[in-house]
Amino acid sequence: MLTIDGEVNYFPRGLSEILDEAKYNRHLDIERNLLLVYDNDMKFYFSADAEKHIPVIERALANAQKNGLMDKLVKKYWQTTYEILQPEKRVQIILELPQ
Hints:
Layout: H1 18-24, E1 34-38, H2 54-66, H3 69-85, E2 91-95
Parallel strand pairs: 1-2
């Protein structure tokens, strides 16, 4: 259980979640030196009826990556987070997810 006096020593949050979460849990500290990296940690789930949309979404995401839209959106919505947390200066630990 996450409490002020609990024995919590790891409370995982994505880079985009950390600062907002820290506002509500002031008793926790943000780790300053490490960055745990999960490969493919963002997933879309489709019902059987919606599977026909998968190729369209895959193309849209690939195009957004290729034409720079993805980078523009990341900068627009998370630039402050990157400036505060400085992920590029952290030791990155790559974690493999089970298949």
